[in-house]
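User: These chains co-purify. Model them together.
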Amino acid sequence: MVEQTARDDVRVIRTGGSKINYRRPLFSTDNRYLLCASGDFVKVYSTATEECVRVLQGHKNLVTGIQLNPRNHLQLYSTSLDGTIRLWDFTDGILMKTFVVDFKLLALYTSAADEKSIFAIVPKDNNEISGNFQLVSINLPKSTDQEVAVKDVTVVLDDVHQSPKSIAFGREGQFVASVKSLELCVLFFKRRKYYRFPLSSKDRKGANNVFTCVACHPKEDCVATGHKDGKIRLWRNISNKQEYTYSTQHWHHNVVNDLIFSAEGTSLLSGGVESVLVQWQYKSETKKNFLPRLGGAIEHIATSPDGFLHCTSHSDNKIITIQSNLTVSAIIQGLVKGQEVLTDLMLDPRSKALVLNGKPGHLQFYSLQSDKQLYNLDIVQKEYIHQSSELNQTQVVKAAFDCQGTWLVTVEERKDETTDLEQQMKLWAYNEEQQSFALNTMINAPHESHISALCFQNLTGSRSGPATLVTAGLDCQFKVWILGDDSDIYRKCVCWSCDFVGTYHHLQATNCSFSEDGSLLAVSFEQIITLWDPDTWDLKCTFCHPPGKIQDLAFGRLSCSKYLLGTTDNGFLCCWNLLSCSLEWSTRLNVKVLQVDPLSENVAAFTEFSQVTDLFVFKPNEPRPLYMQKNVCSGLVQWALFVPREFPEDYNSDGKQWLARSQLYFLSASQNLMTFSTESVEERLTSSSKHLVIEENIPMTPLHVLLGKHREQQTNFVSEAKQTALPEGSATIDEMLHTPAHVLPNASFLCSMFVNSLMISKMGTSAKEEEVEEMDSEKEEDESDTEITLVEDEQETKEAYSAEELLPKLTKSEQKELKKLRKIDFSWIATL
Amino acid sequence: MSSYKPTVIQTYPKLGNKVTQDTLYWKNYKSPVQIKEFGAVTNINFSPIAPYNYAVTASTRINIYGRYSQEPLKTFSRFNDTAYCGTYRNDGRLLAAGSEDGIVRLFDVAGRAALRQYSGHTKAVQVTAFTSDKYHLMSGSDDYSVRLWDIPSTTELHCFKEHTDYIRCGCTSNLNADLFVTGSYDHTVKVFDARMDKSVITMEHGQPVESVLLFPSGGLLVSAGGRYVKVWDMLKGGQLLVSLRNHHKTVTCLCLSSSGQRLLSGSLDRHVKIYSTSTYKVVHSLDYAAAILSLALAPENEAIVVGMTNSVLNIRHRKHNENKQEKKKKGPSYRFFIKGKDYMPKKGDLLVSKPVKFHLKKYDKLLKGFRVSLALDAVLETNVRVKTPEVTTGVMQELNRRGVLQNALAGRDEKQLSVLLSFLIRNVVDPRFTSVLVNVAEIIVDIYSSVIGESPLVDNQFLKLQDLIEKEIDYQEELLEVLGMMDTIFATMTTKKNAVVCGNQNYALIAGPEEEPMVVA
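Assistant: Joint model of the two components:
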């Protein structure tokens, strides 16, 4: 989780938004949970509610494969690039075992035939660059230790493809099929027979026979393979080198990304770039069912063990669960990544959500608190054509919110080689009733060239006037748009229209920014910053720092509002004083991103020097920076944003002071969302989140409150009564009740021990037994350390136990005594 | 999952008048019936009762017309001189008229000769009106006097001589039998009460008053004179509420629509303007061939009757769509369609609404199935490409966006190609479509350059297109020259602010050659 630890306790942490489409997701056997690898974690989603129920944390690197334990379906194996295989109890979120393999594990398989070992793809000689990979069988040793080093690694197949989709295990694990480039290999385990089925590489009629994925029929000896040109081949009779057959199906017009047989083998599911899920009837492949327009390209397909649910994971970081009748039942959507963030990071002032480019032609609203996408706003409103070859689609290139969040402006562009630039500016008004943005004004070709920047005027209390928007274009103009009243007797409506067009020496307008109170507009024209009065649109003043062209522009806030900050492309950060109209200071810094905290005077600057990004936080009126951090992350930081905190933090030290009011988020080069945080905040957050989980289990209905009170009374009463009945100081019972059920030995084994413990130690029980008991309890103690104790639950279980234990109080010895008593003749009483 | 998103068809702001409910309503009249009268039509008055005949005063006669009659049903011609202001009583049985000779005559609508004559005015009487109690008659004359007559006994009850110029208009209150209003050429509008000896309210209109009108509620008074229409608040003692100047010649007549929501004014500038009575904004305007002297609306706005100086009576009847409905073939019974639809959900019922079915256009259906050539064919059908060229262009743009425009355009025979080329010739210089269609034209030239010379029809159209584009280029060059000249002029005028060019509101919306002439203007 922690990427780097810096001094002053301020750390760069990943806040979420990691990929959930990296590997094929997995259903639990009861269909209740969907498990997927996400960055360094394994996430457990509920299939019913789409909520993330649990996050399995522990791997130090990317998780590359997950499989259920074939011997226990409540346990999960996961592999990671950190060279470990971990065994989890995913319902409780507990790490049970760690197997250290010392290989970079790229994929994980389990086989029904061989339950003792698991299979993984590893690079040959642990050297990834060689491009030579092997499928190995890893024999997991039986051991009680938490961490076990695994030595028993045997190579099964040599020269395999590194993608996990290129290997599949056949009917009951009898054979394994592997595809690489133009060859299908099948290995039968029992007979140790190895077959190779090559295809010709001839590129005839646009055919491209390169294999992309493979799946095996669960009941028959049939292998399905997907190909680069969209063909699907079904191979039969594969145990015969000469007389094998294959049939070809061709529906996909592009690469088949994944295919899988349904659990019973009655149908085959395939998907690709077209984002259409195709269901083929097995043995009558001409019958097909389609589920089109699923979003991004389909990356993986998985089915549940009972065949009721399928799920597809998509390139736009999304998992869709689909019922067996091909209706969508749930969508799990992560932060959409994988394309350039053209719009920059923004904050929706209403929902406090992070806003950036989402699906093609959409803006996504992403909640930072819950690490969840709130909704998508369709900006372009055109049918998206899925095609692997580059189609010039319309893209949302710029967007901005006004300070109250009532208006949103978006600019979409499409550039073709042959045609002119298609550009549209859309203004969206927030609709309170629908709780969403509705299109208000659409302007065709607002500028003759690309729009380089746009911003709304901040209308604070003292200023009045119509809402104002400024756009700067590379056609050497900046335009002012104002909100006008367009209502007549038939309807009430407002719309935006152009009010003013400004130019400066026919230079390209590259940036624009309003001061905090909206009383001054700064527009940069290549090297020159011009200041305009928004009331009269008069040019007031110009600044420049030759020969550098202005890259970024920002006004200071609060007490520093008299300063204007600018960065130049020749590596200078300049600060001008607006009162004296002179350069206050300048420094040699190659600033890539300049962000101003809206709630304080602080300014964050990400600088780049020889591929290393540093962060400086400073106040424009102070000579020394408040905070510096070298090497924030590898690669360039291009997008950053200050997000105001809901409740200000209380920091005493200077180094953390700048985090008090707002939090700084940034997107790293690999498009991970990072933030700066301190330990104390993290701890509080995690504890509160756990607390929440408990509460969320039971909804707080009036009935629940009533019932809860009633129960509480009852239990109090009962427990008082029973406390006395319980044998005191029974360590074993305590141990047993504190230990989670899954680590306990079987009940028949425990029973005798438990009964023994209840007996009054009259005669010396055999020393042996005691030893065993002690050993067990020690072991149990070890493991109980790791678990999270839920106090309330415990209480209840204890009571449940004690209630049961009240009745069978008679032990064997006591029964024997009873029997003896019965045999005694009591006839002498009668004589009395 | 998300459904198919239909092709975006650009909508362009329409220049000129917007289409509103009012334009639709007031345009929904049949072509006019014109009737030639003997002289300028000075007054039109509708009978307030059922067949809604109307009296038209022109020259020395008063003609009564029926609703659809081309010929007068009846004519009152017993006037020695010009007749004025033939007005129905509110029961529709009596008609009063003034005359140039100063005598007010009363007619029975069924009879021919005058029932009564009221003499007393010394000059022409141009205003007559019945009071709402039916027993009195008000008259205004060029001798500056306003008189109130008792109808049965022909005696003069009152004579007000407060005006100082000709009295040319007047009306009585619907609610109070004693109240009436007169407008005079002395620029004033006076309100009289028969119970008082003199006028109650006097309002300065500012111009000779040609027409006055009381609202049915009696709260508002409208006067017309000169180019102005003024609305007065009677309840505030005659305070000016609003002054309208929408005509550019004298406003001669006023009229209210039957609902009281709209006010109509006719003028010598040959226009009838229709105002909303809530905002007093012009919502529609009607044009006529000659200067308008009189105007009346039939009850329920069934007809607009306008009298003009060229002695033509213009009648426009409302269109009704009943005929169209009759033509429709008889379908299943009404009961069939409402079956189960009138069921009111009871308390506790769970309402499951039927999913709304979206119907895609033909081209969208084809585009959804990736049949691009057929989609292009669908939008090149005559009615689509002629009536809505923006749809054709929109689909072409969508095809280009999908990268299949070339495929869709290729492989066409002579007939289809000529259709395409004629569409291009028609629309390529339209600034709304130029950017898309130039690209289409380029692709067509690329594809079909090899077949040039095989068909005289296509060759001819290619030549036409070439000619058109050359002309357009010349035109644009000229416009740029003009623009350059204007820039230099502006630059010399505004030496200080040379950096600033003020923009037109619709600058971004109307690009292209249409804009430059506007700038010149």
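The first strand of chain B starts at residue 33 and ends at 36.
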